[in-house]
Structures are given as structure tokens and as C-alpha cells.
């Protein structure tokens, strides 16, 4: 029995590290020894590990079934420590494996159980983080934010704090709580620096990338992505590596667009190549027999997003690729992935001059998705795109209202992109969606003169449309 317990603990250590093949092999051996010794507790413990690592390897149906059986056995034995572990691992895998509603319910049940046995500061905190993660996945961000704030109010420490830093940090970044997000995520990065594991590191690096991109720092985001991917590839823990690869491709796409706007062809080409390198492992995994269904479609969603981002990095505007990203994200049940893909799809439709009615409808749906989540930064990106495209969404009429006619905008400082001060003024109004006639009225110039300025701006920025000009100008910081 002692040998079985030690072997089960070793398997658990490999599982926590993210080395699931080794964990599975050790767990199976521990189960054999436990059964031979009649050690029911170690057997259930090893079964929990076996189920978790099996599910985390992509075989959700088999893994979750083993976890359910292990949890039932643990409850019969009344082992408090293993019951807490059962709540923690089963609720986590249910969320990863497409049963987030059940995972959330089980996690909340586990929090109540932990309180009843005096383990609120231990297992209760960790299981509560699982509840936060499941609510985030489902798009119930108000509830997720409340759970996170409550958890931090209790001053969690150790692994319980570390688990919360990544999930809450990512949520706060997407919610627009940037100061809180950066503080938590930087703390998390320092804590995982000496570790070799995937569960905590994956969510922390996803959050760090999100925070950097949200604040317009693509070079920083790509450096973070390279570090995070290198760390997780040591374990090849696909349950956490998939989203990180998709986020890394997104960071390179943003970097490529900035480089093209600055006419740095070399940097743009390098970013495009890097984005493709992040996409390719996901495409390879999808080609495997169970690839499309891995993690209840989450891998398919990340693979589709990475493919669309790689195309964006290469300068290809592909509406179909983003529509595929929407479809797979919706199928996986991930509210954030769906909302973000809708934004990019609407952007692509506008850039490819799709029928305007369809593009406006897509943009409206994207805005509604972001607003329902309370995803402030994403909502602002969509509103900015609407203004640049001269689309008036009913929900954004008061957002970024232009100054009154008698309030002439102040002339901006000269820039190093070849634009004159007057062209900068025109560009600012163009980005707000004004026509040449309206620009002329605002600046007290003729409509034809405004048109000449617009043509000069398009030429100097190397773009073909007003929407592209506004997008490039925003990325380069030429306008607010």
C-alpha cells in the first residue's frame, strides 16, 4: 500500500508538470500495484491522475469517464484530501472538455464542500478558480469577475494564488482592467519563471500577450509569446499549448500589420513567417484522427483562429478564414473566441468591399457579442472600425462624437511619415468616418480640396481605401 501511494504521488507530479504520457504510464502502474495490495485509496488517487492526463491529452470521453469513477470511489472512502482533488480535477477537465456548465456547477458545489470541512483557504480557493474559468468560457464574465475578486479578497497564497493569477489576469485584460491585469500577470510570470509546468504558465502567458496587444505593443507581445510557447513545448501539453499558439499567431499578425504600415517589408515578412510557424503545429494536430474533436472542439477553434491570423500576418484579407474561425469557436462554446473572430470577420468584409449591408450586420453582431461580455477593449476596437468605415451603429452614436462645427480641431505636430499638418487634420476627420464634403466644412476648405488631401494621404500611407488609411494611422499612432 505504501508503494502504491508513492507511485500514485509520482504520477500526480508528472501530471501537474504537464508531462501527460509519463503521468499516464506511472498512473497505470500505480493502479496495478494498488489493486494487488488492496489499497483502494491509492488506486482512486492514481485513477484521478490517469483520467486527468488522459483528458488533457485530448481523449476527453475516456478521461472524464475515468475521473467520474475515481471521484465516486474517493467519496465512498471519505478521504478529504482526495475529495478536494476530485472536485478540482473533474471540474477543470469538464470545462476543457466541452461541459463548462457542468464544470461550473461542480466547482461551485466543491467550494461549498470545502467551506463545510474547513478547507476554504485550501481546496476552496483552487476549486473557486475553476468556477471562474468555467464562467469565463461560457461568457458569464460578470459572474467570473465577481468570483475572481472574491478569491483575491481572501488573500490566496501558493498554488491557489498562482492558479488565479493567469485566469483572472486574462479576464481582466479582456475586460479592460489593465492596471489590475498587468499587476497580476507580471506577478504570475515571476512565480512561474523557475517552474517547469504548463497549467499555470499557459494561462499566464495568454494573459500577458492579451495585455500587450490590447495596449498596442505587438513587439512586446511577440517576445512574450516566443517565451511562453518555448516553455510549454517542453511538455507538449496540448490542452494549454493550443490557445497559446493561436495567441502567438495573433501577436505576429499585429506585428506584421504595424510593419507594413511603417513600410518595413523585412519585419513584415519575418512576422508572417513566425505566424505560420505557430499555426503549423495546430494544423498537424488537426490532421490526426481525433484532431477535430479534441477538447470538444477547442483545438479546432484555436487551429482555425491561428490559420486566419497567419493569413492576416501575410497581408491576406480572407473573410472565409474568419468565418471558419467563428464557426469553430461557436461549436466549442468559447464566448471570447467567438466574439473576437466576429470582429475580425467584419473587418475583413469591410476591407474586401463585401456588400455593405452584410458588413454592417456583421459589425453589429460583433459589437453585441463584445458588449454582452463586457469586453471593453474589443468593443472599442469595433466602435473605432465602425467610425473609420462611416458606419453608424445605434449603440455607438455617442461614442467618439466629433467636435462641433465651430470648434476647429487643433493642428497636430508634423510627423515623419510625410504627412503635412493639414493632412494630419484631414486624416483625423477621415478616421471618424466623415465624407470629403463634411471634412471640407469642418476645416473651411472646399470639398474638392479635401478630396485632394485624402488622395495624398492614401498615397503617402501606401493604402487603397479610406478604411485602410484610418486603420494604418491608428496603428501608427498618427491619430488618437
Features:
23 helices, 480 residues, 77% helix
Question: Can you describe what's shown?
Answer:
It is a single chain. With 480 residues, the protein is mostly helical. The protein has 23 helices and no strands. It has helices spanning 2-17, 20-37, 40-56, 60-77, 80-96, 100-116, 120-138, 141-153, 158-175, 178-192, 199-214, 218-233, 238-261, 265-286, 298-313, 319-332, 335-351, 356-373, 376-388, 421-431, 436-443, 447-461, 466-476. The chain is elongated. Mean pLDDT is 90; it is low at 396-414.
Which residues form runs of ≥5 with pLDDT under 50? Answer: 396-414
- Strand and helix order: HHHHHHHHHHHHHHHHHHHHHHH
How many H/I helical runs?
23
How much strand content do the residues show? Answer: under 5%
Largest sheet: none
Average residue-wise pLDDT: 90
Helix content, binned percent: over 70%
- Number of E-state strands: 0
- The helix/strand class is mainly alpha
From the alpha carbons, calculate the radius of gyration and give it in angstroms: 25 Å
The CA-CA distance between the termini, in Å, is 67 Å
Tell the overall outline. Answer: elongated
Amino acid at each position: 500500500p505504501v508503494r502504491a501511494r508513492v507511485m500514485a504521488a509520482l504520477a500526480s507530479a508528472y501530471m501537474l508538470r504537464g508531462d501527460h504520457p509519463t503521468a499516464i504510464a506511472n498512473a497505470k502502474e500505480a493502479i496495478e500495484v494498488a489493486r494487488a495490495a488492496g489499497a483502494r485509496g491509492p488506486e482512486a488517487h492514481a485513477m484521478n491522475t490517469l483520467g486527468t492526463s488522459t483528458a488533457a491529452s485530448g481523449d476527453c470521453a475516456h478521461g472524464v469517464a475515468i475521473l467520474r469513477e475515481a471521484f465516486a470511489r474517493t467519496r465512498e472512502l471519505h478521504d478529504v484530501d482526495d475529495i478536494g482533488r476530485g472536485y478540482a480535477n473533474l471540474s477543470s477537465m469538464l470545462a476543457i472538455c466541452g461541459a463548462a456548465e457542468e464544470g461550473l456547477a461542480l466547482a461551485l458545489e466543491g467550494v461549498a464542500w470545502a467551506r463545510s470541512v474547513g478547507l476554504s483557504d485550501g481546496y476552496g480557493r483552487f476549486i473557486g478558480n475553476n468556477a471562474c474559468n468555467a464562467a469565463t468560457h461560457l461568457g458569464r464574465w460578470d459572474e467570473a469577475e465577481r468570483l475572481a475578486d472574491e478569491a483575491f479578497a481572501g488573500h490566496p497564497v501558493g498554488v491557489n494564488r498562482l492558479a488565479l493569477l493567469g485566469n483572472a489576469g486574462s479576464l481582466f485584460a479582456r475586460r479592460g482592467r489593465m492596471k489590475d491585469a498587468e499587476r497580476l500577470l507580471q506577478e504570475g510570470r515571476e512565480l512561474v519563471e523557475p517552474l517547469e509546468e504548463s497549467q499555470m504558465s499557459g494561462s499566464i502567458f495568454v494573459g500577458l500577450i492579451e495585455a500587450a496587444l490590447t495596449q498596442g505593443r505587438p513587439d512586446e507581445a511577440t517576445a512574450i509569446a516566443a517565451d511562453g510557447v518555448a516553455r510549454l513545448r517542453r511538455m507538449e501539453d496540448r490542452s494549454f499549448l493550443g490557445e497559446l499558439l493561436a495567441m502567438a499567431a495573433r501577436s505576429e499578425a499585429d506585428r506584421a500589420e504595424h510593419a507594413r504600415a511603417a513600410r518595413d517589408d523585412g519585419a513584415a515578412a519575418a512576422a508572417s513567417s513566425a505566424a505560420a510557424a505557430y499555426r503549423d503545429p495546430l494544423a498537424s494536430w488537426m490532421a490526426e484522427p481525433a484532431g477535430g474533436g479534441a477538447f470538444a472542439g477547442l483545438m479546432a477553434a484555436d487551429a482555425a483562429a491561428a490559420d486566419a491570423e497567419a493569413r492576416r500576418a501575410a497581408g491576406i484579407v480572407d473573410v472565409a478564414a474568419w468565418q471558419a474561425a467563428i464557426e469553430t469557436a461557436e461549436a466549442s462554446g468559447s464566448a471570447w473566441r467567438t466574439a473576437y473572430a466576429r470582429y475580425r470577420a467584419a473587418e475583413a468584409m469591410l476591407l474586401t468591399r463585401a456588400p455593405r449591408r452584410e458588413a454592417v450586420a456583421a459589425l453589429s453582431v460583433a459589437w453585441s457579442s463584445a458588449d454582452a461580455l463586457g469586453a471593453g477593449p474589443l468593443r472599442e476596437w469595433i466602435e473605432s472600425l465602425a467610425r473609420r468605415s462611416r458606419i453608424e451603429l445605434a449603440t455607438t452614436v455617442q461614442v467618439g462624437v466629433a467636435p462641433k462645427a465651430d470648434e476647429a480641431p487643433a493642428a497636430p505636430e508634423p510627423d515623419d511619415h510625410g504627412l503635412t499638418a493639414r493632412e494630419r487634420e484631414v486624416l483625423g476627420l477621415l478616421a471618424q468616418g466623415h465624407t470629403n464634403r463634411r471634412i471640407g466644412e469642418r476645416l473651411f476648405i472646399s470639398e474638392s480640396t479635401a478630396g485632394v488631401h485624402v488622395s495624398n494621404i492614401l498615397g503617402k500611407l501606401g493604402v487603397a481605401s479610406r478604411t485602410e488609411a484610418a486603420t494604418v494611422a491608428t496603428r501608427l499612432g498618427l491619430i488618437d
